[in-house]
Specification:
Layout lengths: L16 E2 L19 H8 L4 E5 L5 E2 L14 E5 L3 E10 L11 E8 L6 E6 L2 E2 L8 E11 L2 E10 L6
The structure holds zinc ion.
């Protein structure tokens, strides 16, 4: 990894990579589930990507919430999705915004293939930062975390080169 220049910036970004899972023990925050997001986090622990889906109008709902934004039904239920999508947008973090999450890394919005604008906030991994493009196909990869007796699994995304699962 290149060392920071005089302004503290890592240059040039084209050469930087962040591979999953990040090396060494996790030092960042552990996500805390609420009643609406618990099925999402529980699914990730089993390495399943579950998205709430309205049982009335079949609309996927994410981020998790108690009601369907389309028909206002109060009955969304978790369903497995393919874990495949495309990069809607992204940015590169070059400073340590959260303790223990070491830059540089890519923060991305990924649109899942199941529904238009069904979008997750995530990190891109197993890719050179300079190779990331809007619209590139990606697939989910799971990263198990443990810190001080608490655990969680995060859903990252990596380039999908069209191979098998
Ligand atoms: Zn609905």
């Amino acid at each position: 990894m290149p060392s920071p220049d005089a302004r503290g910036l890592h240059q040039p970004p084209e050469t930087l990579t962040w591979l999953a899972p990040p090396a060494g023990p996790w030092r960042g925050p552990i996500p805390v589930a609420d009643i609406d997001s618990a099925p999402f986090w529980d699914g990730l622990r089993r390495h399943e990507l579950l998205i709430l889906r309205c049982r009335e109008c079949r609309t996927f709902v994410h981020p998790p919430q108690a009601s369907c934004p389309r028909c206002l039904s109060l009955d969304p239920a978790p369903e497995p999705v393919s874990g495949r999508g495309t990069v809607y947008s992204f940015t590169v973090a070059n400073r340590e915004f959260a303790p223990g999450i070491v830059p540089p890394y890519v923060v991305a919005l990924v649109d899942l293939v199941e529904q238009e604008s069904l979008r997750l906030v995530t990190n891109l991994v197993n890719v050179s930062i300079g190779d990331v493009r809007i619209g590139m196909p990606v697939r989910v990869v799971f990263s198990d975390l443990e810190l001080d007796g608490e655990d969680a699994t995060l859903a990252y995304f990596e380039p999908d080169h069209g191979g098998g699962p």
